[in-house]
Amino acid sequence: MTLLVISPDYASHLLPLATLATAWRDRGERVVVASGPATAGIVDVFGFERRDLRLGRGSNPGVIAAGEQPPDEGDSLRGFFRATAEGALATLRYQAQERLTDLMWDPVGRASATARIVEELAPDQVLVDHLAFSARLGLLSAGTAHGDVVLGHPSALPVGSEVYGVPPAWPSAFAPDPSGLEALQELCRTVSDRFTDEWNRAAGELDPGHRPVADAFAEHGPLVLYNYPSELVGDDRRRLLPPHRFLGSARRSEEEDPEVEAWLSRGRPFVYVSFGSFLSVRGDVLARVAAALRAIGATAAVAVGSTDAAELGDLPSDWLVRGYLPQVRLLAAAAGAVTHGGNNSVTEAIGSGVPLVVLPFSTDQFAGAAAVEAAGFGTVLDPNAASVADLASALRSVLDPSADVRGRLDAIAAAQAARPGPEVAFDALAD
């Protein structure tokens, strides 16, 4: 059997997809990954075959730096980072304006390249990132069955009256200006209309028999796999979902890191801190988090990413501070975590039974943070407004969860350990 995995050239996308594919690899099946060159090292680590497939102008092998991107992508990233400092609505507006170039880069060319790889490999099964829109166009136009993997919050695939790019829910720490929110909704509707026109144009060129769709962002494959815990999804959304499975999380095995293992062997409770590949650039927020951790006397493991650790101030000698840290391994032992609310971080933390302080900046992070807050699995703060005292209070609360919260988190972790996401994905595609 051959499994084809299709991913954009970003570590945050490929890592969970590759983790799902281990269910096939561990059964002795052939796994081929189609992605760009930046993530080739990740493919090698997993022991998969690789085919070159560039699905966008940017890339990210693990830690992002605007200066390492092509000029247009670097400018886009710098604009995004500036917008995050202005606030939630400014960031979402900026992302909406960038969306056409972000999501539909050379759609006909990329769809055709995808179709050529499928024709060459004749895979028995296919897993594709839902946000790889041009690749999905190639699969859909060729009638290739596939598992459509939503790696973000489920609202990345809008349902009902939702508009792509507008959070369907906000955490209590955010109170968007009504007129600003209305303007965002109008902008996102415009982007959705234009994106749908581009989708229909490309699909018609690939397949003259294509019937135009009303909202390309709401299109999906025959089976949707949500890389998300079902316990964070409300009944209202469940009733609107297409045929699907919830995977819980895609917590990968990581190569043993002697320094990390030696640090963990001391057995001290600690807080894991990471803002992921992109948002680690917000050293100002990381510095306030570090100050709050010092204020409550907590030990921490901090992945600073693209921020210079010196920006965090005078750090205790017993902290573990590096540019990159093995997140899954550390979450398995952490007492709490501070995150930007990226889906990998949220799902991996909940799957490890770790309560969260969430500081959302962009995209679906607001919806994900709202879900964590609603479930009682963490505290959400505005990263631009939260003081050191606010952060210290939030940290104390997650480090001392109620018996109910502790029990529910432990139950989720136990259920995912008994039936991990890769096994759920394998069974779903086998049905």
Protein described:
The chain is α/β, with parallel strands linked by helices and 431 residues long. The protein has two domains: 2-251 and 420-430, Rossmann fold (3-Layer(aba) Sandwich); 258-417, Glycogen Phosphorylase B (Rossmann fold, 3-Layer(aba) Sandwich), CATH 3.40.50. Helix content is 46%, strand content 12%. The strands form two sheets. The protein has a seven-stranded parallel sheet, sandwiched between helices. α5 crosses α7. It is globular and about 65 Å long. The two termini are 15 Å apart. This is Glycosyltransferase. It comes from Agromyces tropicus.
What are the SSEs and their pairings?
Layout: E1 2-6, H1 11-25, E2 30-35, H2 40-46, E3 49-52, H3 71-86, H4 88-103, H5 107-121, E4 125-129, H6 133-142, E5 147-150, H7 178-206, E6 223-226, H8 235-238, E7 244-246, H9 258-264, E8 271-274, H10 276-279, H11 283-295, E9 300-303, E10 320-322, H12 327-331, E11 336-339, H13 343-351, E12 356-358, H14 365-375, E13 378-380, H15 388-399, H16 403-418, H17 421-430
Parallel strand pairs: 1-2, 1-4, 2-3, 4-5, 5-6, 6-7, 8-9, 8-11, 9-10, 11-12, 12-13
Helix pairs in contact: 1-17, 3-4, 4-7, 5-6, 5-7, 6-7, 11-15
Protein name: Glycosyltransferase
Organism: Agromyces tropicus
InterPro entries: Glycosyltransferase_28, UDP_glucos_trans
